[in-house]
Amino acid sequence: MTERTTLTPHAEDQRLAALDAYKVLDTEHEQVFDDLAELAAYICDAPVSLVSLVGRDRQFFKAARNLDIVETSREMSFCAHTLGNAKTMVVPDATKDSRFYENPLVTGEHQVRFYAGAPIIDPKGHVLGTVCVIDQKPRELTEPQLRALEALARQATALLEQRRLNALHEATTDILNKASSRLNLALDAGNFGTFTWVLDTGRFTWENDQMYKLFGRPRTQGPLSVEMLAEKIVQPAERDRFSEATASIEEEGDHLEWSGEILGGDGTIRWIELTGVAERTQANQLSIIGIAKGDTTEDLS
Q1: Whether the predicted model's global pTM rises above the 0.70 cut
Q2: CATH classification of 190-294 is 3.30.450.20, yes or no?
């Protein structure tokens, strides 16, 4: 018994690559997919329903209602016959269908007679599997039942896409976190401090230990406020230039460039340089994302 499909080897390789991108084969059952199978069975008044994904040599059941197996060989798969035409397939009586009358699912203990499968199609048009219903007696579906089954298959595609995007987001976040850690190590090694200054609220966030060293303050004291920086820490002769430099930042893309003497937390006069660019946060607040460099004092407690 062989599967009949119009897919070329190249098209099948592309389809399998698309399926692999979802990383869903051999995963545990998930309620959202179980719900699709439950709805399919209810709408179509069928005892068995599946969310089936067709791999290279097998079909895997992401959800199964009233079926105690998690996969079959692709050779036995009814769903695999939908791969080449991306249309809902209805088999009213498998014993009278030349494709299936010798199928072990028909001749064996499962006694499959009726099958209807709506294809799960990814955004690029690859058929990944089906949402299908099965019965042990010959029958048909009504037109509304067929349309509902196809709607559930589209929902399966949406769930797979969301699942893929969630996994991509997690992977991207992990990469960014690692990159951020490496960047902070490089900044610390180069005696650079990093900060975010929200211009709308005056919030001045110090993002690494080097900022505390540059300002001669222990972490236990927390970062300086902008007001204190402008009015007490920046030395009197430098304050007008400091005010001018910050006042000129009015929109996204503007740059901050200022250097001058400050009073360190340890009482010493230090030179510091602040460089940054204005960006809009997700809350639409204008902020300066910046770097500081200058003199440091080590081993602050």
Answers
A1: no
A2: yes
